[in-house]
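Narrative summary of target 7.
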Amino acid sequence: MLGRTLSARWQTEFEVIPTDLPEADITNADGFGKIVAAHRPDVLIHCAAMTAVDACESEPEKAFLLNETGSRNVARACAKNGVRLIAVSTDYVFRGDSSVPNSETDEPAPRTIYGKSKLAGEIAVRTECPDAVIARTAWLYGPGGPSFVHTMLKLADGSRPELKVVADQIGNPTSTFALADGLRQIVLHPDCKGVFHLTCEGDTSWYGFACEIFRLAGKNQTVVPCTTADYPRPAPRPADSRLAKTALLNHGLAPMKPWREALKEFLDHELSDSSISARG
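Modeled conformation, tokenized:
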């Protein structure tokens, strides 16, 4: 999802070389290393990951293969070929129960296999490429999905008198458009290294997010708040996914876009193309 956005949004400014399976397999160290050596890009954005949180709980070996070993292979290829690396990570590296947004310097303490495997990937990246950037994001949505936005608009088809949405989890909804803009700033500032948090400004609950999606999309859909306990999942969801964007401020870079503004931009783009759903 992020890769699609970067390829489309950056192609007029940069020479973008998109890679994907089957030709680029990050679990194949030799094969992926040859691709990096052949292109020798100025910057490599590492978006590949196993992000299905519940599936990671039931398939931990696969999660660590992709998120840790795969990230190590990417980092080693970058180090060997002198390529600057920006690796995308997640809020799930934290416990998710803080009363304030987590900053880049807070100690990670993941509770899920997904979070543990992504943290292991971060460590692998820092070990192999000490000057790499680790860009953490959360509550991501973008063209093509899958995402919460796509799910909500699909469910709001007029067949359900009401939708129950969790109201006791809070975070920073973030579009791939906004994340692409944040990553662009880092690409253009080679002095940036270390951990950066790149989520939209402002926060809400999944319930509040859903209400704003329907309002902006012109959907007359009743939404009812519920609790996390009402929808138990194999992997525990963080009650607080908020991320503080301290590193952007410290480097004098522009703040991330407010989440409501980013959501409007995304829906205007998607609904005008009828990519998600017709305005109802």
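The chain is about 40% helix and 15% strand.
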